[in-house]
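Hello,

I think I submitted the uridine-diphosphate-N-acetylglucosamine job twice by accident. Can you confirm which output corresponds to this input? Input:
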Amino acid sequence: MRILTVVGARPQFVKAAAVSRILRREHREILVHTGQHYDHGLSQVFFDELEMAPPDYNLKVGSGSHGHQTGQMLVRIEDVLLQERPDAVLVYGDTNSTLAAALAAAKLHIPVAHVEAGLRSFNPAMPEEINRRLTDHLSQILFAPTAAATAQLGREGIAAGVHQVGDVMYDILQANLERSRACSRLRAALGLEAGRYVLATIHRAENTDDPERLRAILEAFSAIDLPVLWPMHPRTRARIGQFGLEPLLAAAPQLRVVEPVGYLDMLALEAQARLILTDSGGVQKEAYLLAVPCLTVRGETEWIETVSSGWNRLVAAEPAAIALAVTGCTRPAEHPAHYGDGNAARRIVEVLERHFAVAVPA
Ligand code: UD1
Ligand code: UDP
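Support: Only one job matched these inputs. Its output is below.
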């Protein structure tokens, strides 16, 4: 079985790590990095920490408008597919890299397998919602992480090829949690006490690209009565500069802005935070898996189980709303296993083996 995996952005390196390890050991995997994320701290650090093989191809597409970035990826992925002719193309999540790979493969009649199928925010303005809907409808094999995702695919008329396997982020979290505790020194180096700080991440376009909204988030984070550690995505940093909002950061002594951190530091920081404030899909899910209360600065979430179980709350990008939510944050008594059992990657490979004649590579 020859599987061509396409990744490009930070969360995709994390998601692919668990599956790639098995594929490379037992089959043939061709790993393509689109180059959507290219800074060391958003890309190479994940390959190093998660001991991933280097990509077979780096398409070096880089940043750009949606059309430009997705178009460049489409052209370059098509070339690779024509050369490699894999049995299937494996894609993850909902980024521009996901959609470009699915579209290139579908047009060449190469089956597409989508990990994290069936997630929806029902917010049509969100670029990820466009990417994930189209990718699901271009896929032959759909790996849904949850019962809700499987049901959503059914409502959209997709029943064949759907496999509910659990969430690959749980696999990789389980495999690395102890290691992260043992080797991460960042919290102590920053002088933060376990259980006495808030961990924040913000990068969604809806929060970063509107100056008033970004200002409100900065004001809200500045007013929190605990140290707030904020590994800042370059998109957010760029917008803060562009909108002239740096003085707000400088005036908030308890706000600790750092560069994006590697996966092991991130896991350790998440696990010991009092509370996580985020707009990231992956971070909401990790907060849940680590049983750390989370506030999500968005109007909706794809990860609805985190909210229905009481561990995650949606909060408006307004200082008063965030302050109220931070003080009212509690830890529910129940913590159901919504995201599988940590064996999603193995199930994904088994499904692929059933679909494609298992020819072990020479
Ligand atoms: C992308 C995904 C988003 C995902 C996120 C994970 C899309 C539409 N968005 O958002 O779904 O949640 O990745 O982090 O695919 N930049 C750098 N260095 C880098 C990469 C980006 O400085 O290595 C800066 C550039 O200014 C760039 C901006 O960040 O223009 C946005 O990058 P881009 O990949 O377009 O989108 P993200 O916001 O990272
Ligand atoms: N992450 C990380 N360092 C950071 C921020 C996030 O290692 O500074 C990890 C996080 O633990 C999760 C993944 O990146 O595994 C989530 O990616 P991101 O928030 O960029 O994207 P999303 O999940 O929203 O698509």
